[in-house]
Structure prediction request, 371 residues.
Amino acid sequence: MRYQTFTLGLLLLTMYACGKKEEKKAKMTNTDTMSCESSLPSRFSATNNTNSISESKTVSYEGMVQIPSGEFLMGASDDEGRQDEYPQHRVKINAFWMDATEVTNAQFEKFVKATGYVTTAEIKPDWEEIKKQLPPGTPKPDESLLVAASLVFTPTATAVDLNDASQWWRWTEGANWKHPQGPKSDIKGKENYPVVHISWDDANAYSKWAGKRLPTEAEWEYASRGGLIDKKYFWGNEDPEKGKPKANIWQGKFPYLNMAKDKFAGASPVKSFVPNRYGLYDMAGNVWEWCSDWYTPDYYKDLSRSIATNPKGPSKSYDPMEPTVPKKVVRGGSFLCNASYCKGYRVTARMKSSPDTGLGHTGFRCVADIK
Ligand SMILES: [Ca+2]
Prediction:
């Protein structure tokens, strides 16, 4: 594992570098098969106020679609997956409701107005909390950097080493869901865009307030497939960069040249692309979406002995790349995903991040049980 110091000299952006071996392999086999980003960068821990949110007993199903019950093969069967996507295994899922879109700024604003909730990115990081997630002896960062902030994507000027994410993520004071690019930006006119800079704790708090919950990883993949069997993407097997744009992803050269063939260099309003067969929008690209599950790379191995019914993830997180940091699963990829770097839009692609991390390309959607 390699800990990198962030642009400002402190932020422990615990990115795991793709090994040289993997790089070589990718070059030899075709960069299309490379899925380099193994872990999303971490934000500072901050004490959150999720517990102050009381659970709603009533649910509005407006904007949700019903996902039928069924059985499917979860995980990758082709050779493009990362190790944690195997083995493919049989999973049974009960019917449930799912938000047709990512939660929007307008929806999140209603929640904040109703509850006074303050998101993780708006809270000054607490060194005592951060320390718990770091290897013993890690020095305390400079006090000037312990400010309410979040990570904002900034394109580089030229091609860079894709192993070093600190080149395109900036720790930006005042960046949060209301100011996605930093204090000078706002969300006016972006009511219909997915809310971003959302930590798992924030997403969980919203879900509680709405009387809903975050999807399990199995529900997420099942819903994303939309009933298609063993396809790479929710639309089938056609390469996302061929034909009509299918999702909001990065076209061009990451992270310096965005051709925006899909018309969007950053996030797009929800419902800008064709939905999947269940009527779910942006199940690939736009923003990453939090799941309720803890992450372990071996969970599929544990499940593969028999049919798993409504699996809810392992009881404890373990990410060998950052063993001291608990991680939750995120799914679907974002507007930054590109074949040369991170094919997070593949229907089986798994990613993980710590629950107190929110980034400029991370949001969520909710599900609800059928009563
Ligand atoms: Ca998405």
Remarks:
- The CA atoms of residues 32 and 216 lie 28 Å apart.
- Residues 1-52+70-371 form a domain with the paralog of FGE (formylglycine-generating enzyme) fold (CATH 3.90.1580.10).
